[in-house]
Amino acid sequence: MTLLLSTVAGLPMPAAVAIGYALAVVLHFSMQRWFVFRHVESFALRPHRQVLRYAIVGVIQYATTLAATELLAPSLGISPQIAFLGVVAVTSTTGFLMLRHGVFHAESEPAGDTA
Protein backbone atom coordinates (compact mmCIF):
# COMPACT_ATOMS: atom_id res chain seq x y z
CA MET A 1 0.00 0.00 0.00
CA THR A 2 2.77 2.44 0.95
CA LEU A 3 4.68 1.86 -2.27
CA LEU A 4 1.52 2.22 -4.35
CA LEU A 5 0.66 5.47 -2.63
CA SER A 6 4.17 6.87 -3.10
CA THR A 7 4.81 5.72 -6.67
CA VAL A 8 1.42 5.41 -8.38
CA ALA A 9 -0.52 8.06 -6.46
CA GLY A 10 2.54 10.33 -6.18
CA LEU A 11 2.17 11.05 -2.48
CA PRO A 12 5.26 12.16 -0.56
CA MET A 13 6.84 9.22 1.27
CA PRO A 14 5.94 10.50 4.79
CA ALA A 15 2.25 10.73 3.82
CA ALA A 16 2.35 7.34 2.09
CA VAL A 17 3.94 5.73 5.17
CA ALA A 18 1.35 7.32 7.49
CA ILE A 19 -1.62 6.25 5.39
CA GLY A 20 -0.19 2.79 4.76
CA TYR A 21 0.38 2.21 8.46
CA ALA A 22 -3.04 3.54 9.42
CA LEU A 23 -4.77 1.19 6.99
CA ALA A 24 -2.67 -1.78 8.00
CA VAL A 25 -2.92 -1.45 11.79
CA VAL A 26 -6.46 -2.72 12.28
CA LEU A 27 -6.03 -5.55 9.79
CA HIS A 28 -2.65 -6.52 11.20
CA PHE A 29 -3.78 -6.62 14.85
CA SER A 30 -6.83 -8.70 13.96
CA MET A 31 -4.90 -11.15 11.80
CA GLN A 32 -2.19 -11.57 14.44
CA ARG A 33 -4.62 -12.12 17.32
CA TRP A 34 -7.14 -14.36 15.61
CA PHE A 35 -5.05 -16.24 13.05
CA VAL A 36 -1.31 -16.19 13.75
CA PHE A 37 -1.66 -16.70 17.50
CA ARG A 38 -4.90 -18.70 17.44
CA HIS A 39 -3.07 -21.65 19.03
CA VAL A 40 -2.89 -19.69 22.30
CA GLU A 41 -5.71 -21.03 24.45
CA SER A 42 -5.62 -18.24 26.98
CA PHE A 43 -3.67 -15.01 26.50
CA ALA A 44 -1.69 -13.67 29.44
CA LEU A 45 -2.82 -10.12 28.71
CA ARG A 46 -6.34 -8.81 28.58
CA PRO A 47 -7.36 -7.30 25.22
CA HIS A 48 -6.83 -3.67 26.32
CA ARG A 49 -3.25 -4.51 27.42
CA GLN A 50 -2.65 -6.26 24.10
CA VAL A 51 -3.84 -3.18 22.23
CA LEU A 52 -1.58 -0.93 24.32
CA ARG A 53 1.51 -3.08 23.79
CA TYR A 54 0.64 -3.55 20.13
CA ALA A 55 0.43 0.22 19.78
CA ILE A 56 3.86 0.62 21.36
CA VAL A 57 5.36 -1.89 18.92
CA GLY A 58 3.61 -0.05 16.08
CA VAL A 59 4.96 3.34 17.15
CA ILE A 60 8.49 1.92 17.28
CA GLN A 61 8.09 0.39 13.82
CA TYR A 62 6.55 3.58 12.42
CA ALA A 63 9.33 5.80 13.77
CA THR A 64 11.98 3.41 12.46
CA THR A 65 10.37 3.32 9.02
CA LEU A 66 9.99 7.07 8.83
CA ALA A 67 13.60 7.62 9.95
CA ALA A 68 14.89 5.12 7.40
CA THR A 69 12.97 6.63 4.51
CA GLU A 70 13.61 10.28 5.40
CA LEU A 71 17.07 10.25 7.00
CA LEU A 72 18.88 7.04 6.13
CA ALA A 73 17.94 6.93 2.44
CA PRO A 74 19.49 10.31 1.55
CA SER A 75 22.62 9.63 3.59
CA LEU A 76 23.12 6.31 1.78
CA GLY A 77 22.21 7.78 -1.60
CA ILE A 78 19.28 5.40 -2.16
CA SER A 79 15.63 6.06 -2.90
CA PRO A 80 13.15 6.19 -0.01
CA GLN A 81 11.35 3.24 -1.59
CA ILE A 82 14.48 1.05 -1.43
CA ALA A 83 15.08 2.14 2.17
CA PHE A 84 11.45 1.28 2.90
CA LEU A 85 11.86 -2.26 1.56
CA GLY A 86 14.97 -2.78 3.69
CA VAL A 87 13.44 -1.46 6.88
CA VAL A 88 10.29 -3.54 6.36
CA ALA A 89 12.42 -6.69 6.30
CA VAL A 90 14.01 -5.74 9.62
CA THR A 91 10.90 -4.42 11.38
CA SER A 92 8.76 -7.36 10.27
CA THR A 93 11.08 -9.85 11.90
CA THR A 94 11.70 -7.93 15.10
CA GLY A 95 8.03 -6.89 15.29
CA PHE A 96 6.87 -10.50 15.08
CA LEU A 97 9.19 -11.47 17.92
CA MET A 98 7.94 -8.58 20.06
CA LEU A 99 4.33 -9.57 19.37
CA ARG A 100 4.98 -13.24 20.09
CA HIS A 101 6.77 -12.69 23.37
CA GLY A 102 5.28 -9.45 24.65
CA VAL A 103 1.74 -9.08 23.31
CA PHE A 104 0.08 -12.34 22.25
CA HIS A 105 1.78 -14.76 24.63
CA ALA A 106 0.04 -17.48 26.59
CA GLU A 107 -0.70 -17.22 30.31
CA SER A 108 2.06 -19.67 31.16
CA GLU A 109 4.70 -17.41 29.56
CA PRO A 110 6.08 -14.78 31.98
CA ALA A 111 6.21 -11.62 29.87
CA GLY A 112 4.76 -8.88 32.01
CA ASP A 113 1.64 -7.44 33.53
CA THR A 114 -1.53 -9.48 33.12
CA ALA A 115 -3.88 -6.81 34.42
Description:
The chain is 73% helix and 0% strand. The protein has 4 helices and no strands. The chain is elongated. The chain starts with a helix and ends in a 13-residue tail after the last helix.
| Strand fraction | under 5%
Global shape? elongated
How many beta-strand elements? Answer: 0
Q: Distance between the terminal alpha carbons, to the nearest Å?
A: 35 Å
Spatial extent as radius of gyration: 16 Å
Mean of the pLDDT scores? Answer: 87
The SS-based structural class is mainly alpha
For the largest beta-sheet, the strand count, sense and barrel status come to: none
Low-confidence stretches: none
Number of helices, where a helix is a run of at least 4 consecutive DSSP H or I residues: 4
Helix content: over 70%
Note the run of SSEs as H and E.
HHHH
Please render the helix and strand layout as text.
Layout: H1 2-8, H2 13-36, H3 47-76, H4 80-102
Helix pairs in contact: 1-2, 2-3, 3-4
Give descriptors for this structure.
73% helix; 4 helices; 0% strand; single chain; mainly alpha; 115 residues
Give a summary of the structure in a few sentences:
The chain is mainly alpha-helical. 73% of the residues lie in helices and 0% in strands. The chain is elongated.
